[in-house]
Amino acid sequence: MSGPADGQPLGPIERVSLWTSAFCMIGMVVLILAEVVVRGVFNLTTEHSDELVGYLLVGISFLSLALCQSRGAFHRVEMVQMRLGPHGRAISNLVFDILSFAYVALTNWYFIQFVISSYRREAMASTVLATPLWIPESVMIVGATMLLIMLGKAIVDDVRKVVS
């Protein structure tokens, strides 16, 4: 995936990615702290914190993907890249970004089918909250779609580098 956009301001997709994943992180911290305090002080439990923290963890994992892509936070095979010239690196980045886009697009298609299936079956979590599963599952679609947008921007940038 193409390199980081150092020094550039965050675009709208990146801001949404940052703020939604930050909200999930803050929510996790608050829920875990509440559970610790309630258990320690009152010897009770919130009963639902583990389920909600799990949903928020999925949120962080998927909603942060677009920001990670735009800032170059994903792993790279530097061993190959450093042996290529500037034009070879540009072509390599373009091929990798196109393959990544195709993979994420296919995966997102299956996420959509999965969420539609959960919605139609009225699938609920087998917990006291009985959360409709399509709600936390939809976060996968949102995160993957934001990642696709950022990969699309990376492909456009890669094409410009290859052509120039």
Keywords:
elongated, mainly alpha, 164 residues
The assigned structural class equals mainly alpha
Instruction: Let me know the number of strands.
Output: 0
Give the helix proportion (percent range). Answer: over 70%
Please tally the helical runs, counting DSSP H or I stretches of 4 or more residues.
6
Instruction: Tell me the fraction of residues in β-strands, as a range.
Output: under 5%
* Total discrete domains: 1
Mean pLDDT: 91
Distance between the termini: 19 Å
Commentary on this structure:
The protein is an all-alpha fold. It has one domain. The chain has six helices and no strands. The chain has helices spanning 12-42, 49-63, 65-70, 78-81, 86-120, 134-163. Helix 1 (12-42) packs antiparallel against helix 2 (49-63), helix 2 (49-63) packs parallel to helix 6 (134-163) and helix 5 (86-120) runs antiparallel to helix 6. The two termini are 19 Å apart.
